[in-house]
């Protein structure tokens, strides 16, 4: 459920060409009914990019990913303290749960347990 520019959405920043690696995270967000918007940057640091994405999102939640890891950040946290970190080795269940939890942060409901 990728949204258009004007719809409030979680901002997902793709660093390089890696979004297909993290498709389960996007499906987890979609399962919870929260829109997301993907933006691409050619290079960057993942934690800072996730925090910048959270600052851009009207929903206050941002995600950034590269080939190695995915970060979920919340605008009200310090830039150096992301909420969730997911490494590429983790399984699809963990990836889906992180997506669910990013959306649940927007909804203000309890997180699901993540098992990798």
Per CATH, the architecture is: 3-Layer(aba) Sandwich
Coarse morphology: globular
CATH class placement: Alpha Beta
Helix content: 25-40%
Number of strands: 5
Biggest β-sheet strands, sense, barrel: 5 strands, mixed
**Major sheet: order of its strands?**
2-1-3-4-5
Pfam family, one: Dehydratase_MU
Protein name: Propanediol dehydratase
Short description:
With 116 residues, the protein is of the alpha/beta class.
Outline the structure in words.
This protein is α/β, with parallel strands linked by helices. The chain has a single domain (10-107), classed as B12-dependent dehydatase associated subunit (Rossmann fold). Helices cover 31% and strands 23% of the residues. It is built from 3 helices and 5 strands, in the order E-H-E-H-E-E-E-H. It has helices at 23-31, 46-56, 92-107; strands at 10-15, 36-41, 61-65, 69-74, 84-87. Strands 2-1-3-4-5 form a 5-stranded mixed β-sheet, sandwiched between helices. Helix 1 (23-31) packs across helix 3 (92-107). The radius of gyration is 12 Å and the shape is globular. It starts with 9 loop residues before the first strand and ends in a 9-residue tail after the last helix. InterPro entries: B12-dep_deHydtase_bsu, Dehydtase/Dehydtase_re, Diol/glycerol_deHydtase_re_ssu.
List the main descriptive attributes of the protein structure presented here.
116 residues; Rossmann fold; 31% helix; 5-stranded mixed β-sheet; alpha/beta; Propanediol dehydratase
